[in-house]
Amino acid sequence: MKFGIIGAGRIGKIHGGNVAARKDCVVAFVADADAGAATSLAQSTGARVGTVEQIFAASEVDAVAICSPTDTHADLIERAARARKAIFCEKPIDLSADRVRKCLDVVEAAGATLMIGFNRRFDHNFASLQARMADGLIGELEMVSITSRDPGPPPISYIARSGGLFRDMMIHDFDMARFLLGEEPVAISAMGSALVDKAIGEAGDVDTAVVIMETKSGKVAQISNSRRAAYGYDQRIEAHGSKGMIRADNIRETSVEFAGAQGFVTDKALDFFLERYASAYRDELAAFVSAVTKGEKPRPDGEDGFQAIRLADAAYLSWKTKKRVAID
Amino acid sequence: MKFGIIGAGRIGKIHGGNVAARKDCVVAFVADADAGAATSLAQSTGARVGTVEQIFAASEVDAVAICSPTDTHADLIERAARARKAIFCEKPIDLSADRVRKCLDVVEAAGATLMIGFNRRFDHNFASLQARMADGLIGELEMVSITSRDPGPPPISYIARSGGLFRDMMIHDFDMARFLLGEEPVAISAMGSALVDKAIGEAGDVDTAVVIMETKSGKVAQISNSRRAAYGYDQRIEAHGSKGMIRADNIRETSVEFAGAQGFVTDKALDFFLERYASAYRDELAAFVSAVTKGEKPRPDGEDGFQAIRLADAAYLSWKTKKRVAID
Amino acid sequence: MKFGIIGAGRIGKIHGGNVAARKDCVVAFVADADAGAATSLAQSTGARVGTVEQIFAASEVDAVAICSPTDTHADLIERAARARKAIFCEKPIDLSADRVRKCLDVVEAAGATLMIGFNRRFDHNFASLQARMADGLIGELEMVSITSRDPGPPPISYIARSGGLFRDMMIHDFDMARFLLGEEPVAISAMGSALVDKAIGEAGDVDTAVVIMETKSGKVAQISNSRRAAYGYDQRIEAHGSKGMIRADNIRETSVEFAGAQGFVTDKALDFFLERYASAYRDELAAFVSAVTKGEKPRPDGEDGFQAIRLADAAYLSWKTKKRVAID
Amino acid sequence: MKFGIIGAGRIGKIHGGNVAARKDCVVAFVADADAGAATSLAQSTGARVGTVEQIFAASEVDAVAICSPTDTHADLIERAARARKAIFCEKPIDLSADRVRKCLDVVEAAGATLMIGFNRRFDHNFASLQARMADGLIGELEMVSITSRDPGPPPISYIARSGGLFRDMMIHDFDMARFLLGEEPVAISAMGSALVDKAIGEAGDVDTAVVIMETKSGKVAQISNSRRAAYGYDQRIEAHGSKGMIRADNIRETSVEFAGAQGFVTDKALDFFLERYASAYRDELAAFVSAVTKGEKPRPDGEDGFQAIRLADAAYLSWKTKKRVAID
Questions:
Q1: Residue in B closest to A219 by C-alpha
Q2: What is the mean pLDDT of chain C?
Q3: Which residue, B179, B202, B211, D218, shows the most beta carbons closer than 10 Å to its own?
Q4: DSSP letter (8 states) at residue A268
Q5: Which stretches of D40-184 are assigned E, i.e. beta strand?
Q6: Superfamily grouping for domain D120-290+299-326
Q7: Nearest Cβ partner for D263 among B260, B261, B268
Q8: pLDDT of B328 higher than 90
Q9: How does the average pLDDT of chain B come out, rounded?
């Protein structure tokens, strides 16, 4: 399977590297507005540098991995769909749910395969947690609780064009909540503020937020997010059901523990997503390749991407208007 | 210090027994509408059975512990205050915040000492957590997360007169949130449903609920409650600040762990409040005795009781009206 | 049940206090060569100061708790047995196994009840571990591993008259090993040195030691001891069987955990035996009172005391002679 | 760097695969008496099938990985040394310490580079533990405790030619003890029996064993081994020093925990060495390649292999003769 990698930044390097490491895949082209970045990734993956146009036009290219800035995603997805490429696109599809809907219409009309990069579903811990729930381990699900805290805030320049915490960061948790709930939330209420960095507040965003949601059948979910965690990248899930609780804890740097005069000390959590989700990115790619190869519909798909951005929009609206928001 | 114990039920027995076990205290009287219960507790504590009137009239009685049903609390507090007794009263003071306010006015006018039984503040784990926060261990507080799950639901008959989950159960968590936040919440949003027992829903109550709150300075709090936990009485606190996280975990029955074909298995959490908070009840009493003896104002006081019921009311209103509720 | 407490030092205070706190027991007399210590304990327990002779002569005294220095134990046990008192004696009975054997002959001839204070059997964690093993949880037992580390070394003056680490400290672990193995060790090998304090080595003792033992059926046990542990009083047990492992971990001061830039930090282990085994001492006394009341033979008994000192002797011999020692 | 892989069994596949996955290495030849195994590994690594003679004769081959049965190791090492290849050899070099010494003399005379596959030194948890000790985290080392338990026993046919538990299994722990102690043991005492499978005992071996060792300066070590662990591959290290304890725990299959009526359940330990030490094998190879490339002496080297087999021999002797054994 031959890939075109569009975008050679941090996440493009991950996906490009993972494609190149697979025996059944090849990176054919790398495209990036930054020629240096494109060349560097092309060299390390044994690919050629190309333009987006070249990639879509190349008949040997089976699939594209869209790793470019968010505001290019929807357009690139549409072009890739029309070019009959299988499409893997980083989240989010777009910051506007309307734009996402239109994009998905194009994808559907073209009969294209589209998978969205909600990598956490492929973390083997979270995937195992979800599978055990699906097997009935905790009985009927009642409550989901998700904690996500970044080790530190991104640059303000990133904040400004990110769509804000709800659409940029919590969108992962919205997808995870949906993945676990197995049912769509019908209402949401959000609270948040800028406690980590005032500049984030001045940019119209929050860095600390909590959200609650409920589904039609009465299941509830809570999400907490922060752009700061002194102890590493905090990624935890907890679910409660009629027969008990299931949770997935953080991953520490090592299993080493020191005990001294200050007590028992274990390592910090793995520092950030590249490290924490390294194998999740590989498994995500494997799922995409497998689905494309077998002609199956991959998940998370465009609809998952749409629902996640809708929840993020509703959370933002709830925060902004200081009101509970119904999701129709 | 001589006590009159009013109410010889489950919680009256705890407080009566703890008073009797102290070298500096005596149970002088036990009063209860149920003569058998009163006699039983009086015998085990070396006290006399008396009426409420006798207790208030007895000049040798220094203090009363009000452990009777909630709807008698406010009236008994007022009478005790006028009788110049130091007053320890179980939570809540009343299910009506207005009634609580009036009661506190009487207490204030009488210059009486009043302490409310939010026992969790005296759990040595939670007390230590709060003390370390106060010492600045986690820097500036940003977020509080509280999980409380009962091992199983109470009888429907109890539910009916309890004031509902928010006023009966989550009131402890509201007090804990205030204890940790060090600042009053200004808004609250609640979601909940009856997933454990439909009869609870039919009684107009919920058994599963999540709440978020925020303070004027932007701190946020989340609380989750359930009337069901297969693994014991779930009582956890987590707080995040600029320098890190602090949390207090459940207490297991023993420190024993078994490892076999199913994995590593540790004990359930201590089953319920009598066992989980046995030493907290003793330390709570010690704080009351110490405050009365030294002529100091005990905490949590009537105002803490008032603020907790206000938050519970607001949570109930939010749940009932499906709206975020501002707290003025 | 009326007790005479012989010895009003650290451990005498524990047992005296625990006797006094029981509703079915009374401390009748306290005896100690140090009049001040005796008076102090007598006052706090509502007892009279008396001589050892008075205690043995007093017909109302049912039982004695021997808490005096080790070199007085065997003689006091014999006198108490002849005086027909039920006897609780702190470990060890004597530093000489021969002397212990003679003492037990006197006890047997007198038909006296004797219980030895191996308190750890009554720690509810260890007791639960043993009970689960007895219930077959781990199948056929194969290996026992015991770790005991004191937070710090005792004064050299204590070391000199203690009988040394094997007889003073590891004797608890020998009793625990026998308690868990359910079979007598037939061989032992010990290694040790003075690494914590050279003065301990100069006094002819070790402060760091490891021992292995095997039983006739081939079960093996390992014990490690140290007079130093920066992280508190380290008291752990682990047992392996055909169906798995069971272990009991240390008890921390609180359940509080802090997570910051240095990682995740939990509290030190409870600092020393008075704190760690506070409830074990109460349960030990309860077992003694129950056995005496019911006319049953208490455990651990004199034979347990004898076997433990034999193992300690063998360990000492193994260390001293640098040879494996067979236990006949 | 071009490798010849000698032996295409379980461990040969690991090393062959890891060599092939490196960008700076190539598998040139695979040799195995079993042509099918050789062909299979050659195909998956892009190598040619060759004979041992061909590998030694091929001038383009820089290094060999000796993954054949133990009784061929010493001979192959000597031939490789004379052929001026860099040598990576699986442990043990030989079951006879004398044979190992002779082999090492040949290696030395040839000036060859030899690294022995004690993979556990390269586990990032254990490596980190050792590094922190070397940095002084626990102060002066006093005691090392190592637990190794296989999930289940190997076939009796393997036992028979393995050299027995001490030389086949515990040899890893002897190397680890030396790695951590930083000093040679001067005495050893071993106990063991066949509790898992009587046939192992009939084959003259043990499946359950404990060992203690001491060094000249008085440091002590304990090792426990078993061929059975219901809860997975048990691989733990604990070290104590003047400033505290450091330990490395098992690695679980996932971070998922279930809490239900039976308590809190976490996953089993990773099942066996291929899975548990997958990254250790990669890091081990990286260390070998780096040393060869830089012309440095790799560790663990032949001398480490010799010392480990000496300790294993001494342990066997101690067990067999029921005596403590001095190591000169």
A1: B193
A2: 97
A3: B211
A4: P
A5: 48-49, 63-66, 86-89, 114-116, 141-149
A6: Dihydrodipicolinate Reductase; domain 2 (3.30.360.10)
A7: B268
A8: no
A9: 97
Mind listing the pLDDT tens digit for each residue in A130-157? 999 999 999 999 999 999 999 999 999 9
Q: What is the CATH number of domain C120-326?
A: 3.30.360.10
Chain A residues in contact with C261 by the CB 8 A cut-off are: 230-231, 268
Query: What pLDDT shows up at residue D23?
Result: 87
Q: With cut-offs at 50, 70 and 90, classify the pLDDT of residue B23.
A: confident
Quote the pLDDT of residue B321. Answer: 98
- Across the interface, which of B259, B261, B267 has its CB nearest the CB of D263? B267
- Residues A70-108 have pLDDT tens digits of 999 999 999 999 999 999 999 999 999 999 999 999 999
Given a cut of 90, whether residue D279 has pLDDT beyond it is yes
Cβ atoms of B237 and B178 within 8 Å: the answer is: no
Number of B:D CB contacts under 8 A?
45
The mean pLDDT value of chain A amounts to 97
Least confident of A182-191, A197-206, B157-166: B157-166
Chain B residues within an 8 Å CB radius of A324: 189, 318, 322-324
Residue B1 predicted with pLDDT over 90? yes
Q: In this predicted structure, what is the pLDDT of residue C160?
A: 85
> Residues C176-196: what's their mean pLDDT?
98
Which chains have 3+ CB pairs within 8 A of A? B, C, D
Which class would CATH give A121-326? alpha beta
Is B254 close to C132, i.e. CB distance below 8 A? no
Write the DSSP string, C161-201.
HHT-HHHHTHHHHHHHHHHHHSS-EEEEEEEEE--S-HHHH
Subunits next to B (3 or more Cβ pairs <8 Å) are A, C, D
Contact B204, B164 (CB under 8 A): yes
Q: Are strands D234-241 and D141-149 parallel, antiparallel or unpaired?
A: antiparallel
Measured in angstroms, the CA of D214 and the nearest CA of chain C are apart by 7
Contact C113, C89 (CB under 8 A): no
Contacts of residue A197, defined as CB under 8 A and 6 or more positions apart, other chains included, come to A153, A156, A207, A227
Omega before A155 cis (within 30°)? no
Q: Which chains touch D (3 or more CB pairs under 8 A)?
A: A, B, C
3-state SS class at D226: strand
Q: Per-residue pLDDT tens for C18-44?
A: 999 998 999 999 999 999 999 999 999
> pTM of the entire structure?
0.95
- Residue D214 phi/psi, 5-degree rounding, is -135, 155
Task: Measure CB to CB from residue B324 to each of A194, A210, A322 and give the nearest one.
Answer: A322
Query: Of B218, B219, B224, which is closest to A222 when you measure between CB atoms?
Result: B224
Taking residues A298-313, report their average pLDDT. 97
Alpha helix positions (H), chain C = 10-21, 35-45, 52-57, 70-82, 97-110, 124-134, 156-162, 165-168, 170-181, 198-202, 273-276, 278-294, 302-321
Pick the CATH number of B2-112 from 3.60.20.10, 3.10.129.10, 3.40.50.720, 3.30.70.100: 3.40.50.720
Domain ranges in chain D are 2-112, 120-290+299-326
| Closest residue of chain D to A237, computed from CA coordinates | D256
Mean pLDDT of chain D: 97
Six-digit token string for A179? 């993945």
State residue D161's pLDDT score. Answer: 87
Which residue of A120, A128, A256 to mutate against D (max D Cβ within 10 Å)? A256
pLDDT at A161: 87
Task: Please name the residues in contact with C149: beta carbons below 8 A apart, sequence gap of 6 or more.
Answer: C224, C225, C226, C227, C228, C229, C233, C234, D240
Q: Where does chain B have alpha helices with state H?
A: 10-21, 35-45, 52-57, 70-82, 97-110, 124-134, 156-162, 165-168, 170-181, 198-202, 273-276, 278-294, 302-321
